[in-house]
Design goal:
Length: 344
């Protein structure tokens, strides 16, 4: 008998970032984080449990590089978790594809593990609540828990029952903000977010960031719920710089030598960040945020999109033959099953 399901999950962009864990194995974060699901950056995954398979199999469809053994191991470990919940022992054939490049600052692990969780659970007919799916996805990749509920979400670091999962703060239609994602490089980042999380506590500024977190969360959450774009944009931008400050002041020893910190930005990222400051002083209301990669996400209201795009193209054209990939994202629904076949 063959059990199969296909799920689609969005990547998400954090306005308040998850950076640093209080438990590595369980992927429990130090602080709550707030994000939005992205309409134009998702992962589509099908999982088929097949009695004829001798071992789990992973295929990444539009991948240009070979799959790293560490990554396959992480995926199979996640499938084991789900299999153990169901009691079934069949091996899984996993096929997945991203609609965007991975490792460039768009959280492909978020959409990937959210889609994997939902597809595998559906294939095994596990009836889990959104909260349970979010907790399960979190064990695969922390930020994946935020790709399970719809729209704008908050990841609760730890509730009264010591549980950690994301909840929907507002539906995708709550606020039509636009996220213009400028992919300035397709190179995979040098230092993974897993390493970055581990090193965060070594920054002398980490405790300062954590102490300021309750106010940041409250201010940003209410600006989001009240649709106060200026407060929201300013807090998002301040928060991105706070997160990168921690990364840049987390020293590390690598195989090739010692570094004083992790720099996820490229010169082009900074070029755009400085340009945003200029555009704002010229009256264009736009803010930036960056995750663990050089990709710059620009936030604006829908009516500002044409102006923001024209402004980006203007800086892009300052260097001959420079071509950036640009995605225009709206708030989106969370992970969902898009097809089932051969279920029990
Ligand atoms: O879930 P991870 O390990 O890929 O960490 C995500 C970290 C950031 O993208 C930098 C911040 C966030 O909250 O998404």
């Amino acid at each position: 008998m063959i059990f199969k399901a296909t799920a689609e999950a969005p990547s998400n962009l954090a306005f308040v970032k998850y950076w640093g864990k209080r438990d590595n194995g369980l992927r429990l974060p130090t602080n709550n984080s707030i994000s939005v699901n992205l309409s134009d950056a998702s992962t589509i995954t099908s999982v088929e449990f097949d009695p004829d398979l001798k071992e789990d199999k992973l295929t990444i469809r539009n991948n240009t590089k070979p799959i790293e053994p560490e990554f396959s191991k992480r995926v199979f470990k996640h499938i084991d978790r789900i299999r153990n919940l169901s009691g079934y022992t069949h091996r899984a054939n996993i096929q997945t594809r991203n609609t965007f490049p991975s490792g460039v600052g768009i959280a492909s692990s978020a959409s990937g593990f959210a889609a994997l969780t939902v597809a595998a659970c559906a294939a095994l007919e596990l009836k889990l609540s959104t909260k349970e799916l979010s907790e399960l996805a979190r064990l695969g990749s922390g930020s994946a828990c935020r790709s399970i509920p719809d729209g704008f979400t908050e990841w609760i670091a730890c509730d009264e029952e010591q549980r950690s999962y994301a909840i929907e703060l507002a539906s995708p239609s709550h606020w039509d903000i636009q996220i213009i994602t400028v992919i300035v490089s397709n190179q995979t980042k040098q230092i993974s977010s897993t390493i970055g999380h581990d090193l965060a506590k070594t920054s002398p500024f980490f405790q300062t960031r954590i102490s300021a977190m309750p106010v940041r969360l409250e201010t940003l959450r209410s600006a989001l719920l009240e649709r106060e774009f200026q407060i929201f944009g300013r807090q998002t931008e301040l928060e991105a710089i706070s997160f990168h400050t921690i990364a840049m002041t987390s020293p590390m020893q690598t195989a090739s030598g010692w570094n004083s910190g992790i720099y996820y930005w490229l010169p082009e990222s900074l070029e755009i960040m400085l340009a945003v400051q200029n555009w704002r002083s010229g009256g264009l209301e736009v803010y930036f945020t960056l995750d663990a990669g050089p990709t710059v996400h620009l936030l604006c209201l829908r009516n500002a999109v044409p102006q923001v795009l024209a402004a980006i193209h203007e800086i892009e054209s300052r260097q001959i033959e420079r071509k950036w990939d640009i995605l225009i994202n709206s708030p989106a629904k969370g992970a969902r099953v898009i097809k089932t076949e051969g279920n029990l």
